[in-house]
Amino acid sequence: MNFMQNNSIKILLVEDNRGDARLIQEMLSEAGASAFALEQADRLSTGLERLAAGDIDAVLLDLGLPDSSGLDTFITVHAQAPDVPIVMLTGLDDAELAIKAVQAGAQDYLPKNKLDSELLVRTIRYAIERKKTETHIKHLNSVLKAIRGVNQLIMMEKDRDTLLQNACDTLTEARGYDAAWLGFLSNGDAFATVKGTGFSEDVTRFCEHVLGGDHPPCIKNALAQNDSFVVLDKTRECGDCFFKDACVGKEAAIIRVEHAGKLFGLLAVLLAPAVAVDEEEKGLLEEVAGDIAFGLHEMELDEVRKQAEEQLKASLKEKEILLREIHHRVKNNLQVVSSLLNMQARAAKDENTSAGLLESRDRINTMALIHTKLYESGNLSEINMKGFVDGLIRQLFMGYQVQGTKIVSVVHVADCTLPISIAVPFGLVVNELLSNAFKHAFVNRAEGKIEVSLSASEKGAVCLTVSDDGVGLPEGFDFNTTKTLGLHLVKILVEDQLQGRLDIISKKGTTFKIAFEIKD
After folding, report:
1. Residue boundaries of the structural domains of the chain
2. Which pLDDT belongs to residue 93?
């Protein structure tokens, strides 16, 4: 079923209930006559076929379909189109499943019974923008990884042929190129050595031809002209080139490896079908070629590499600054989302809706705090837990004003660091437990105390304790069956993401003990 408009955001709705599909169409229509173009697939198989055809901006996905159900439905769709944002449509009992899907890469989820036009349109637009931001950051990180990898090789490697081979390996691994080759010239047009990676069955044949002087037309042109960068598009005619079968339908680039007016060789890359040479890719390859040429120049001069190390360290410092700027921008984007949630909470007429939006705001603020600490630290891969927990408690004290209750916090956090992959779920756990204490522990109390302690052994065993001297948990409380979203999230984060253990003691207040290990 199609609800097509021209010049619209193209939405694929995978939903077998025609009534729900018609309702969603009506909600999207309220946004404007041509704002959205909606297509419906009533089965997973049909939806996958449409995604394979491309040109879809976002997916609205029902997890219960005639030919698929549960988390596997999302995993299958995400694998088919990893770059397309997916928003789940859930029933009353699917919240926990939807949260798992979000952890696996979904952008958001919407309960069907609470849908309205404004919420649906806003969620779709936010999902698309977040996905664009994620994709761009991922691209920048892979570019930085490639540059850093090659620069580190140049700093450490003293053998020319090993440098060329490892540089090819690093580029294909970091950027996903189908193939990369580096040729070193002994004079103007004869190659002394050629190294490469990708298409292993063809590398030897390619090297033999080029070393023997049988150059493909693209290599001849790159040697003959002064352009430092040549892009060969997918539609090129390769004539009788011995290597044309390996390049059919793919974009390629050839970059002159030059330094101080001397041509040392050529760098050639063959891009995967889904990759194109944009300005960032061109800048990456030109910088890598320039760095390799500089390394070869230093080897040729046989001088002490102190000057080279200083220049390369400066180059790495610039990349660190760029990565730090990425964390800063991510933090800013998260703060914008936090402000939007805060505004929406103030505008909400329903108290439960407002409270849910404020809880989401606090989770966003926790993640923003992590990026702030990374931006401010000297190590972009780890975060100091003492500074983070102190900042989080201050942040929550500002956000939760417990009327009539004087709350004292006691913090015993070891001066230890956690990798960013652990810091994000850890920070969300601390946020949920502290928020829960602020909201529920001190009802009708004049004063109260919250304690947070964190210890870490040299072998990587981490122990977190969050306790309060409040009213304690309700009689008969069962953590495994509670329907509270925050505690559900704590359980999922501790057991699934941190691979840890959670114990609860409800005596003279409430104590949560969490233990997990940091694995190499």
Report:
1. 2-132, 157-303, 306-378, 381-520
2. 65
CA distance 174 to 155: 18
Residue 475 or 321, more confident: 475
- Cα–Cα distance for residue pair 241/483, rounded to 1 Å: 66
CA–CA distance, 30 with 119 (Å, rounded to integer): 12
- All residues at 6 or more sequence positions from 175 whose CB lies less than 8 Å from its CB, including other chains: 142, 143, 146, 275, 284
Q: Is the pLDDT confidence value at 514 over 90?
A: yes
Pair of tokens at residue 496: 């699934």
Distance from C-alpha of 392 to C-alpha of 389, rounded to nearest angstrom:
5
Q: Which of 77-86, 172-181, 187-196, 399-408 has the lowest mean pLDDT?
A: 399-408
Using H for helix, E for strand and C for coil, what is the string for 290-325? HHHHHHHHHHHHCCCCHHHHHHHHHHHHHHHHHHHH
Has domain 157-303 been given CATH number 3.20.20.70?
no
- Band of residue 11 on the pLDDT scale cut at 50, 70, 90: very high
Q: Is the pLDDT of residue 330 over 50?
A: yes
- pLDDT tens track for 108-133: 888 888 888 888 888 898 888 888 88
Is the overall model pTM greater than 0.70, yes or no?
no
CB 96 within 8 A of CB 62: no
Bridge partners for 61 per DSSP? 14, 88
CA nearest to 126, candidates 141, 106, 144, 140: 106
Mean pLDDT of 357-380: 70
Q: How far apart are the first and last CA of the chain?
A: 50
Pairing outcome for strands 86-90 and 58-62: parallel
Q: What are the pLDDT digits (tens) for 204-257?
A: 777 778 888 888 888 888 888 878 888 877 666 676 777 777 777 778 888 999
Per-residue b or e along 163-181, where b marks 16 or more CB atoms closer than 10 Å to that residue's CB:
bbbbbbbbbbebbebbbbb
Indicate the residue type of 214.
D
Q: How many CA atoms lie within 13 A of 116 on its CB side?
A: 3
DSSP of 85-101: -EEEEE-TT-HHHHHHH
| Superfamily of domain 2-132 in the CATH hierarchy | Response regulator (3.40.50.2300)
Whole-angstrom distance, CA of residue 485 vs CA of residue 356: 9
Fold assignment, 381-520: Heat Shock Protein 90 (3.30.565)
Segment 313-325 mean pLDDT: 71
Nearest Cα neighbor of 87 from 101, 69, 70, 68 is: 101
Q: What is the CA radius of gyration of the chain?
A: 28
**What single letter denotes the amino acid at residue 460?**
G
Q: CB neighbours (10 Å) of residue 77?
A: 24
d(CA 102, CA 109) in angstroms, rounded, equals 8
Nearest to 169 by CA among 161, 160, 179, 159: 179
